[in-house]
Design goal:
Layout lengths: L5 H19 L2 E5 L2 E5 L8 E3 L9 H12 L6 E4 L5 H9 L3 E12 L17 E5 L5 H12 L11 H11 L4 E8 L2 E11 L2 E9 L8 H15 L4 E6 L4 H8 L3 E10 L10
Parallel strand pairs: 9-10
Antiparallel strand pairs: 1-2, 2-3, 4-11, 5-10, 5-11, 6-7, 7-8, 8-9
Protein name: N-acetyltransferase
Pfam families: Acetyltransf_1
Organism: Corallococcus terminator
C-alpha cells in the first residue's frame, strides 16, 4: 500500500478526534487550526489536539494553551502526531512539556463486503451484536457501563462524571454504540464515530470472563459494516501500544499509521487528566 498518504491519514484522524472531544466538552477554545478542550477536573477530554497542520502555532498561542488548562486546575496536555513541526515541539519543550506516553493509530481502507463479515471470525455460538438505540436510556446506560469497564480498575464503580460523559457521547450525531451479548448476557461493547469519510472505532471493552473468545473481533466487524453504511472509505483505531485491541485490529487487517505523542506540563496543584 505504497500509495497511502500517512500525513493525510494523520490530518483526518487528528481533526476528527479534536471535533469529537469539542462536542463533549463543557469549554473549548481554538488553538491555531486545532482546539483546547476542557470537560471538568478528571475528565478524559482535557487536552489540546488537532493542530500543527495548516497553521503555524505561535509562541503566544502556546502561552494561551498553558494558561487555558492551568487556570482550570489541570495539567496542560498536548496530543501530537509525528508530523508536528519541529518548531512546535521546541516551543512546547521550552514551556516545560514532557513526554507522558505514546498511542498507536491504526487504519484500514474499507471494502463493500464488510456487512457479510459482520459476525467476526471465530465468534462463539450464542453471540449477538446489537446497535444501541440512543433514545433507550436503559440500553445506553448498559452500553456505557460495559464499554467503560475496561478503562477503570476491575471492581471499581464508574464515576458519575464518566457515566454522564459516556451517555452524552453515545448520543452524538454520527456516533453508533454496539453491545455484545452472549446468550443474552452483556459481555462487551464498543462505539464508533463517522465523520468526513473516516470512521473511528473507540471505547472497546470485553468483560474479563469472556475475553479470548472472539467478542472483540466481532465488535470490530460490526462497526466496520456500519462504517460502510455511513459512507466511510476508511476506519481507524487508537490504542495503547501492545494491548489486545491493537493485536485484534491487526488480525483484522488494520495497519499501523503512526505513533502519536502525549505531552504534559506538570505543575504544583494541577490535576493530571486521563
Amino acid at each position: 500500500m505504497s500509495d497511502v498518504n500517512l500525513w493525510e491519514i494523520a490530518r483526518r484522524f487528528e481533526r476528527n478526534a479534536a471535533k469529537a472531544v469539542v462536542a463533549l466538552a463543557t469549554e473549548s477554545a481554538p488553538l491555531a487550526d486545532g482546539w483546547m478542550v476542557f470537560g471538568g477536573v478528571g475528565s478524559y477530554v482535557n487536552k489540546s489536539c488537532g493542530y500543527g497542520y495548516d497553521q503555524e502555532v505561535t509562541g503566544a498561542q502556546l502561552d494561551a494553551l498553558v494558561a487555558f488548562f492551568s487556570s482550570r486546575g489541570v495539567e496542560p496536555k498536548a496530543e501530537l502526531s509525528p508530523f508536528a513541526p519541529a518548531a512546535l515541539l521546541q516551543g512546547l519543550a521550552e514551556r516545560g512539556f514532557v513526554l507522558r506516553e505514546f498511542e498507536t493509530v491504526l487504519y484500514r481502507p474499507l471494502r463493500g463486503d464488510e456487512a457479510s463479515r459482520a459476525s467476526g471470525p471465530g465468534a462463539p455460538p450464542g453471540l449477538t451484536i446489537e446497535r444501541v438505540d440512543p433514545r433507550d436510556d436503559a440500553a445506553v446506560r448498559t452500553y456505557v457501563e460495559v464499554a467503560g469497564s475496561g478503562f477503570s480498575p476491575e471492581g471499581e464503580t464508574m464515576s458519575e462524571q464518566f457515566m454522564a460523559l459516556g451517555i452524552k457521547g453515545a448520543r452524538q450525531p454520527g456516533t453508533d454504540s454496539f453491545l455484545a451479548r452472549l446468550d443474552g448476557v452483556p459481555v462487551g461493547a464498543g462505539g464508533c464515530e463517522s465523520m468526513d469519510g473516516l470512521t473511528g472505532l473507540f471505547g472497546t471493552s470485553v468483560l474479563p470472563a469472556y475475553r479470548r473468545r472472539g467478542v472483540q473481533q466481532a465488535l470490530i466487524s460490526a462497526r466496520l459494516a456500519r462504517a460502510v453504511e455511513r459512507g466511510s472509505d476508511m476506519a481507524s483505531i487508537m490504542s495503547s501500544p501492545g494491548i489486545p485491541t491493537e493485536r485484534n485490529a491487526m488480525r483484522m487487517g488494520f495497519l499501523m499509521a503512526y505513533s502519536r505523542a502525549v505531552l504534559v506540563k506538570h505543575g504544583a496543584g494541577l490535576t493530571p487528566s486521563p
